[in-house]
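Reading a protein record of the kind used here takes little practice once its layout is understood. Each number in the token line that follows is a code from a learned vocabulary of backbone shapes. One such record is shown here in full, so that the layout can be seen directly:
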Amino acid sequence: METLTAHPDRDADDLAGPAVLGLVGVPTQAALLQGLSAALDRGEGFAVATLNLDHIVKLRRDAAFRRAYLAQTHVVADGNPVVWLARLSGRRQVALVPGSELIAPLAALAAAKGVSLALLGSTEPALRAAAERLEADHPGLTVAACLAPPMGFDPASAAADAMLDAVAASGARLCLLALGAPKQEILAVRGLARHPGLGFVSIGAGLDFVAGRQKRAPAWVRRIAMEWLWRMLSDPRRLARRYLDCALVLPGLTLAARREGRGRT
């Protein structure tokens, strides 16, 4: 089956430049949930990505990631810098929609519609803990599958296809992917092409937060848009270079957003 192309009018290589700012097509969490609810009612699948600065850095370096992003059916802004850039470019309705904050409303949506959920990524203990927590918090919810890929998992492999088939065989209609970028976004597109009635949402470390395996920044830190600093200080060896790379792309993105914003007025 061919890979879905949600934006056939765009060239994947364009996403290495300022065109990346136009990826966010769903402005708010409410709009996203409304769209996913309608898709579930119609029996249609979807692939949801949550754009942040780290993704923008990776998009510049990884052609496969760019192709996967163009094939997402829904993209929201995950990260205050992406929101600010979108608004600077004239998209003033764009709001912050972190992937980790989609888990509870998606679980509630699945419970209300009688749709089973699958969890894919992270580790088996974390998935089991997350499944128990979600089922306890959302009466009527069924977590039909918990699948933890091995180290070195390739989202474009036969093993990935087998895992996607296992999700479909479980009866789940909605799958939360916790693999990190770019693996989760690539797998979401592959899954949607292979099983068009399944919905895939990439949520990064969100399931580890639900399971209590990782601690998210306190609410007051998130309110002042400093979650990135809290995360970096909690794991500087792994994250310092990532946030440096993010900071380095900001000036060029800001200039591009300002030019686009002036062009819209």
